[in-house]
């Protein structure tokens, strides 16, 4: 979410308005995802991450771009990493989720 918001504010150039709007839409979607994950962690008696440092750590494979093309590439790489992480979590928990509807 923070990366998409940063890209929203950093977007410049001839097509930046449309691309920036897309960045903001993705930022809002990612915030919704983060809220759902935090709620699920709480349901499982855990504590969601609450420190800024932990929240802003990015995978080393993601570098910070300055052009619109670099920003879009950065976001695609980060999305692929997120999908891999979610897939691993699904495999790990499988049908063993201790709460109904998990």
Describe the structure.
This protein is mostly helical. 67% of the residues lie in helices and 0% in strands. The radius of gyration is 16 Å and the shape is elongated.
User: How large is the share of residues in beta strands?
Assistant: under 5%
Helix content: 55-70%
Radius of gyration: 16 Å
Order of helices and strands: HHHH
- Coarse structural class: mainly alpha
Question: Care to count the β-strands?
Answer: 0
Please report the distance between the alpha carbons of the first and last residues.
23 Å
- Count of runs of 4 or more consecutive helical residues: 4
Reported for the largest beta sheet, the result is: none
Detail the poorly predicted runs: none
Mean pLDDT over the residues: 82
Shape, per Cα inertia axes: elongated
Protein topology:
Elements: H1 2-10, H2 16-43, H3 52-56, H4 68-93
Helix pairs in contact: 1-2
Features:
elongated; mainly alpha; 0% strand; 102 residues
Summarize the structure.
With 102 residues, the chain is mostly helical. The protein is built from four helices and no strands.
């Amino acid at each position: 979410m923070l990366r998409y918001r940063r890209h929203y504010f950093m977007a410049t150039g001839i097509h930046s308005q449309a691309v920036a709007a897309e960045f903001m839409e993705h930022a809002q979607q990612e915030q919704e995802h983060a809220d759902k994950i935090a709620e699920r962690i709480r349901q499982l008696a855990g504590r969601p991450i609450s420190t800024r440092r932990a929240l802003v750590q990015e995978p080393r494979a993601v570098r910070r771009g300055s052009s619109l093309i670099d920003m879009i590439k950065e976001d695609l790489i980060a999305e692929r990493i997120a999908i891999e992480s979610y897939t691993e979590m699904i495999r790990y928990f499988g049908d063993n989720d201790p709460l109904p509807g998990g």
